[in-house]
Amino acid sequence: MLLIFLIFISIAQCAQELSDIEKIEQAYDCDPKCWFREAEVNSSTITQWPVNCTEVCGIMNFNAGSDLPVFELQTYFKNLRVLKGVLQFSYTKYASIEFLLSLEEIHCDAVTLGVSFSFNSNLEVLNFNNLTNITCDFYAYNNTILDGTEFCDRYADLALMFVYNNFKNCKGCVSDQLHSTELDKFRGCTAIVNTMFFMFFNVYTTQPPIDLSPLSDIQNISGCLNFYSTDLHDFSFFEKLENIKSNKYANVDINIFESYNLTRFRMPALKTIETTRDNFIINVEKVHDDFCFTPSEMLFFLKNEVIFSKIEAKICQNVTEEDGEDDCIFDGMSKLDNNCSDVLGKITIGSGDEAYVEKLRNVKNIYGGIRIENTNLTNLEFLGSLEYVASLNDSAVPFQISSNKLLQNASLPNLKRVFSTSRYQIGFQENGNDFLNSTACLFLMNQLFLTNVVFDGNECEAIDRTNQNNGANWIFRLNFFILLLWVSL
Ligand SMILES: *[C@@H]1O[C@H](CO)[C@@H](O)[C@H](O)[C@H]1NC(C)=O
Ligand SMILES: *[C@@H]1O[C@H](CO)[C@@H](O)[C@H](O)[C@H]1NC(C)=O
Ligand SMILES: *[C@@H]1O[C@H](CO)[C@@H](O)[C@H](O)[C@H]1NC(C)=O
Ligand SMILES: *[C@@H]1O[C@H](CO)[C@@H](O)[C@H](O)[C@H]1NC(C)=O
Ligand SMILES: *[C@@H]1O[C@H](CO)[C@@H](O)[C@H](O)[C@H]1NC(C)=O
Ligand SMILES: *[C@@H]1O[C@H](CO)[C@@H](O)[C@H](O)[C@H]1NC(C)=O
Ligand SMILES: *[C@@H]1O[C@H](CO)[C@@H](O)[C@H](O)[C@H]1NC(C)=O
Ligand SMILES: *[C@@H]1O[C@H](CO)[C@@H](O)[C@H](O)[C@H]1NC(C)=O
Ligand SMILES: *[C@@H]1O[C@H](CO)[C@@H](O)[C@H](O)[C@H]1NC(C)=O
Ligand SMILES: *[C@@H]1O[C@H](CO)[C@@H](O)[C@H](O)[C@H]1NC(C)=O
Ligand SMILES: *[C@@H]1O[C@H](CO)[C@@H](O)[C@H](O)[C@H]1NC(C)=O
Ligand SMILES: *[C@@H]1O[C@H](CO)[C@@H](O)[C@H](O)[C@H]1NC(C)=O
């Protein structure tokens, strides 16, 4: 099934994209003399191999027709250190790959399926020797006598490994689409390889209700998580899930879609989220109206520089946080506690509140927003600890500084990100004697992650992020559309 899925993805991408050779040409630095452009490696094509090159661009495709003996290949490949392109090894008769002993790096992130070994019935071992770098996912499956154990142990940190259906595989259970009736096969699995795809997955609306406990041992998922049309209430069945190490396989790392009974996220043990793309992407779309992220969940995402493709969510109000520390709830500056670190609500500092601003000295995170208006404050030093501001279900600019005529300085040394779905996250208006010019504005913005600053109606930077997002969404939908087609076949 995984294979079919892959083929579908490749067809989808080929239809709209370039051939592998074109992708290699565009992505990598290639010496025109060091190409191998033949469709496969065999006794008639091998003469085209650029023997003297240490870095070769192209496709090394070994298959049932590959008729060259190992010793001969060894002489051809003895100088090969870096392959930029594809290494494909399917239905061959080879028992080992000692002709690739000198290979040190495979640059393959630019192609659809970079490195794969499949259906090689004699292949016993993946004896790479000097390999130190693979820039794409590694596939080895359905090689009946292959023992991948040593390879897996040695290269576990190098690439995401899909080594399955061989005689011996990497640790971890391979998953793809999950059927609620087949969960038992995951009992005892502590590590999952590949996407976990909960699609049309009904637990409570099925009789009898589905037992989710087989998923409770999972600690690591190497791949993305996808919830697409489910009746789940939250994800607390992932009791022990600590690490998600996603890849570019789908367009989103955690996708939550059409789960109208979902009110909370709740992965109690989650500690790390990583992805091979630049930023971890989460999509929250079409969930229960009450769906909320707790302040700690939101903070975790902010700290990990998560990008939200959509976030139809609120911040949970009035929850007792797991870490035991309750957040301060804002109800006016005069009533605020002296030493809050996390504040829930929209902080407003107006004329007359100047005397209380020192109360904010230890505030690190604000869930809601902050507005400083009509004060005679001269600087924002009292926000020296502030790191994150997040506002979810609100179209207003979350951090506003307006009409503070004496303000001379807007330095916020620890601020890292202000998050909202509105176009701008920080707005300055009619403060001081024009102390904030475009240079100072850019300086402030450059220290922040994905935070747009606007001052007196001028954008700090004219990047239209909205359009970028729409593009990503479109591709993402296309892939789902293709999947749906495939499922309905
Ligand atoms: C080698 O591969 C080429 C390209 O696919 C093919 O045309 C040729 O017939 C093959 N030669 C042998 C000896 O299999
Ligand atoms: C490779 O290098 C050897 C020795 O330097 C030389 O004899 C040979 O002609 C070169 N081959 C090619 C294809 O350039
Ligand atoms: C592997 O690397 C070592 C150290 O760099 C080198 O001595 C050896 O020749 C390399 N092996 C092959 C087969 O190229
Ligand atoms: C692998 O090679 C790529 C491309 O040269 C480089 O960007 C990356 O840092 C390398 N990774 C490791 C672990 O050496
Ligand atoms: C791959 O291996 C698995 C498990 O051994 C087997 O069930 C499956 O049929 C094989 N796939 C193909 C296409 O042979
Ligand atoms: C999960 O991942 C962590 C960090 O990479 C690793 O230390 C741990 O051994 C993994 N656990 C399992 C069960 O694979
Ligand atoms: C939500 O849960 C209720 C009660 O369990 C159930 O009746 C309803 O069908 C569920 N709705 C969806 C969309 O799953
Ligand atoms: C918060 O929760 C507590 C206990 O669950 C409840 O007594 C209190 O009324 C709630 N406060 C608000 C503002 O909802
Ligand atoms: C205020 O909070 C900080 C950090 O949370 C702590 O180090 C400090 O002791 C607290 N001060 C008072 C007076 O509670
Ligand atoms: C700031 O305004 C408050 C009243 O809003 C006033 O008491 C205070 O003296 C003013 N401070 C300065 C420096 O003007
Ligand atoms: C956002 O959600 C909070 C909590 O449910 C609610 O009090 C507030 O009115 C909402 N704001 C908007 C603009 O929807
Ligand atoms: C902009 O403001 C900064 C500091 O506020 C100042 O150093 C700089 O000279 C100003 N630049 C211009 C072009 O006004």
From TrEMBL:
Coiled coil: none annotated. Residues 1-17 form the signal peptide. The keyword Signal applies. Keywords: Receptor, Signal. InterPro entries: Rcpt_L-dom, Rcpt_L-dom_sf, SPS2_domain. Residues 52-143, 189-300, 339-432 form the Receptor L-domain domain. This is Receptor L-domain domain-containing protein. The gene is irld-17.
